UniProtKB/TrEMBL annotation:
Domain of life: Bacteria
Similarity comment text for this entry: Belongs to the CdaR family.
Domain CdaR GGDEF-like: 154-288
PANTHER family xref list: CARBOHYDRATE DIACID REGULATOR (PTHR33744)
Occurrences of domain Purine catabolism PurC-like (ranges): 5-128
Protein's name according to its UniProt entry: Carbohydrate diacid regulator
Residue ranges constituting the PucR C-terminal helix-turn-helix domain according to the UniProt record: 341-399
Length: 409
């Protein structure tokens, strides 16, 4: 739930008025905190000790609200802990407080005397608990769709509809893969499960928040050990828009947690039974992305070309045998002599059999290129310039790269 949801709740909407900080209206609310406790009233108390982040902070005690300087200092400390919003009784909001909240984009609500705090806390806490329950239920449904071998489609559709999600149209999966860097800031341990859980939860919120800003109110997201999976309407987002959204999410995640992130997106499918295919395609896309030399962050299965066909073949021995039959002798020659023959031929094919262009790309002399190509032709005993042979060799190198990458992964 975010601050905008709070404003739209019928039971409390008339008793709350947004005074300032409208730009932060999409901040997530995790719980309520009443900052009128005895400790908070003490001048030497550090309120940060009781703030965990994303709280709707309620302040009604006049001994706090009448001292503008002290109140803003107190809120500044809580703001550093990323509170969600501030709520103050009507008649107790100063211009200075409103100005500060606008400056830091912290939603500031004015509470009407007609809205009793006990009612407010019950309504909001109940809504938060229900939303958490709904979120967990959506995760269970997505997990069932992706991993269960026996799907009860009618039951899943009914459960999803109850949770506000219509699964009757086309859907596709995206997968955010998280890669920790060698060194993390502040010596954070890559084995610290608490840190990892916090990170995955935060990433899930970033994902939901970004898609929500583009009109998708309820998104099915499933955090995993080193990834985050999402299921989205296939026809709701174009490739260009989806790329923009995911690149924005990736940028925020990498900046916040100093990790490397890539996104793989599967094809859209109409039936629930096929959504798992989209998930598998997203996984294959990320595996194949390691072959690419570019610096892209977002990869679509539909744009993989020949690799999307190779990924459909589950028989690894069949693929390895194909490579062996086409370029096996060349691979052995390289292993024995370290002659760079495979690299030379692959570059030659990539430059449409233009030896001069390939030599320039490899930074070798033309005579060296000619010598290597003569050696390659003798080993392969085939006409490389023949279109059929050319295509077979290109495919063999593509499979070789794919299989090597899968092995490393």
């Amino acid at each position: 739930m975010n601050c905008e949801d709070l404003m739209n709740m019928e039971s409390i909407r008339k008793g709350m008025k947004l005074i300032a900080g409208e730009k932060g209206i999409d901040r997530t609310i995790r719980w309520i905190y009443f900052a009128d406790c005895v400790q908070c009233l003490s001048a030497d108390f550090n309120v940060a000790e009781l703030i965990h982040g994303e709280e709707l902070v309620i302040i009604t005690n006049e001994s706090l609200t009448e001292n503008d300087s002290r109140l803003i200092d107190m809120i500044r400390v809580m703001q550093e802990k990323n509170i969600a919003a501030l709520a103050v009784n009507e008649g107790q909001i100063s211009k200075g407080l409103a100005s500060y909240c606008n400056e830091v984009e912290l939603p500031l609500f004015e509470l009407s005397v007609s809205l009793h705090l006990i009612d407010l806390s019950q309504i909001v806490c109940k809504a938060l608990v229900e939303e958490e329950s709904f979120t967990n239920s959506r995760e269970r449904i997505l997990s069932t769709i992706l991993y269960s071998d026996n799907l009860n489609v009618e039951e899943l559709l009914e459960q999803a509809n109850y949770l506000g999600i219509n699964l009757s149209g086309k859907y596709r999966c995206f997968l955010l893969q998280l890669h920790q860097r060698e060194k993390l800031p502040n010596d954070t341990s890559r084995l610290d499960e608490g840190y990892m859980m916090e990170m995955r939860g935060s990433i899930k919120k970033m994902v939901k928040k970004e898609f929500r800003s583009h009109g998708l109110e309820r998104l099915m997201v499933l955090p995993q050990l080193d990834s985050v999976i999402g299921l989205i309407p296939g026809e709701f987002f174009s490739h260009d828009l989806l790329q923009i959204i995911l690149e924005k999410i990736i940028g925020r995640v990498e900046s916040s947690y100093h990790i490397d992130v890539k996104a793989g997106i599967g094809t859209s499918y109409e039936y629930i039974e096929d959504f798992r295919k989209s998930y598998q395609e997203a996984k294959n896309t990320l595996a194949i992305s390691k072959i690419s030399a570019d610096e892209k962050k977002v990869y679509f299965y539909e744009k993989l070309g020949i690799y999307s066909l190779i990924a459909q073949i589950s028989n690894g021995k069949f693929l390895d045998d194909y490579v062996e039959s086409r370029i096996g002798e060349l691979i052995k020659a390289d292993q024995m002599q370290e002659g760079g023959l495979c690299e030379t031929l692959e570059t030659y094919l990539a430059h449409n059999c233009n030896a001069n262009a390939a030599a320039e790309y490899l930074f070798i002399h033309r005579n060296t290129m000619r010598y290597r190509m003569d050696k390659i032709k003798r080993i392969l005993d085939d006409d490389i310039n023949d279109m059929e042979v050319f295509l077979e060799l290109k495919l063999a190198f593509a499979i070789k790269r794919y299989r090597e990458n899968r092995t490393v992964r």
